[in-house]
Design goal:
This protein is mainly alpha-helical. It has a single domain, classed as ATP12-like fold. 65% of the residues lie in helices and 0% in strands. The protein contains nine helices and no strands. The protein has helices spanning 2-12, 19-27, 43-64, 81-91, 96-109, 112-119, 125-132, 134-143, 147-172.
Length: 184
């Protein structure tokens, strides 16, 4: 169902957006990226965020040659213009359909960093979803969960994220077949 929705959106382009608009729509999440907003307490959650999110940010910084900081301020982290330019350049290498998929995944995870990790196969769908829900998972461990509601929410988010990642990969892959002439 999610793949069908993505295909129909890419085919119809109902909002008539061009490549630049799709890139800007995906990159706007960098300003409010889930992994860049940190809490100051409780200490156990602070440590969990540091242990789980910092390696992903470090990977993204090395992979793309950018600088991504985190913040405990409501104003959020300061993202350098050079980082934006590098990510715009990277996203511009994708076609329109793949960009539709990338924006879809970014919207699900509320994170450009996690989306890039997923698309580049640094993260699995399960891991990316877990990291996007880190605080919620922490709260459920502490206070318990409503099984039917939280389980459904988790599985639905995984399904949407997996569909978006698969869509990006399917739209970005190319295959060449060479046939050899048989000599008789």
């Amino acid at each position: 169902m999610h793949l069908t929705t993505l295909c129909n959106t890419a085919l119809d382009n109902p909002t008539q957006r061009d490549k630049g608009q799709l890139i800007r729509a995906a990159l706007k999440f960098l300003d409010t990226d889930t992994v860049c907003y940190r809490v100051e307490e409780p200490e156990t959650l602070v440590e969990l965020q540091r242990n789980e999110w910092d390696p992903v940010i470090d990977w993204a910084e090395r992979r793309y040659g950018v600088e991504i900081s985190s913040s405990t301020s409501i104003l959020g982290p300061s993202i350098p213009a050079r980082t934006r330019e590098a990510l715009v350049s990277h996203l511009a290498s994708y076609n329109m359909w793949a960009l539709q998929g990338i924006e879809f995944v970014v919207t699900q995870l509320k994170s450009m960093v996690l989306t890039l990790g997923l698309i580049d196969l640094y993260l699995t769908v399960e891991r990316a979803v877990l990291l996007s829900r880190l605080e919620e998972e922490y709260q459920m461990q502490k206070w318990g969960s409503i099984e039917w509601a939280h389980d459904y929410e988790l599985r639905e988010l995984r399904a949407r994220t997996a569909a978006g990642a698969l869509f990006v990969h399917l739209c970005s892959e190319s295959t060449t077949v060479k046939h050899k002439l048989l000599q008789g």
